[in-house]
Amino acid sequence: MHAWDCGTPEEYPGWYRCVEYIPRANRICREVFPPLLAAIRRSPLPLYHVVGGGDYYRHLPGYMRAAALAGPAPEPPPLVASDPVLDGLHAFRSTTVFVGEHNQSDVARGFERLDFAPEARPYGDEGVAENGHQLGALCRADGINHLIYMGFAINWCLLLSPGGMHEMSQRGVMCSAIRQAVTAVENRESARRELHKEEGLWRVALAFGFVFDADDVIRALNRLCGHGPHDE
After folding, report:
1. What's the Cα-to-Cα distance from 106 to each of 15, 29, 48, 231, rounded to whole Å?
2. CA neighbor of 203 nearest in space, from 168, 166, 167, 151
3. Are strands 211-212 and 127-129 parallel, antiparallel or unpaired?
4. CATH number of the domain residue 191 falls in
């Protein structure tokens, strides 16, 4: 989920400045994703890609299948009316909190050319969903009732974005995560020890499903398809 190619710090310094986990996500894509995705693809289990932030995925067969299965998205709930005070508060947050006025142009340029990270690009007709409506349709069609998430970030998009754990748990799906395949949005006090990642994983285990180690998942997948040692 949301395993994006965010370019380099030289290309988008403002994006890297306000989204401090990007270097950790890049390392996970390089080091953790390849053996994990390879093991999934050798197994009979489906691999889904949860996307967002642009239209970089809409030409893919896996997205076309998800969109066809799901049909039109339901109407969103009606919004509470805004007013000048609320508009001003949103503007103040955007310029002074997140993403910050000095970062806005870099973030906007980054999203204009958004794409999958090279290591996370879908193969063949792997399912691609841009919201819980489509991801739920894939799950129903394929008989899937337990999703194991990898991607970014465990306490942000994976939790609350369209297709995230909160939304999918409301559709009856158990939602788990792979410890080594996620990172979190951290702050100055938490970043060194990745404390918000630990809190995010704790929340997954408490409220949604389970937390698995990547090596255990790979061993289980290898046993499932008859490869590798049959140790516990």
Report:
1. 6, 22, 29, 48
2. 166
3. unpaired
4. 3.40.50
Structurally, the chain folds into a number of domains equal to 1
Residue 181: domain span: 4-71+87-224
- Residue 177: strand pairing partners: 149, 211
Residue 176's contacts (CB-CB under 8 Å, 6 or more residues apart) are: 146, 147, 148, 149, 204, 208, 209, 210, 211, 212
Read off the pLDDT band of 227 (50, 70, 90). Answer: low
Across the beta sheet with 174-183, what order do the strands follow? 146-152, 174-183, 211-212
| Inside any domain, residue 121 | yes
The answer to the question of residue 177 being in a domain is yes
Q: Tell me what the pLDDT averaged over the chain comes to.
A: 95
User: What distance in Å separates the CA atoms of residue 100 and residue 18, rounded to the nearest whole number?
Assistant: 8
Do the beta carbons of residue 56 and residue 117 sit within 8 Å? no
Determine contact, residues 198/164, Cβ cutoff 8 Å: no
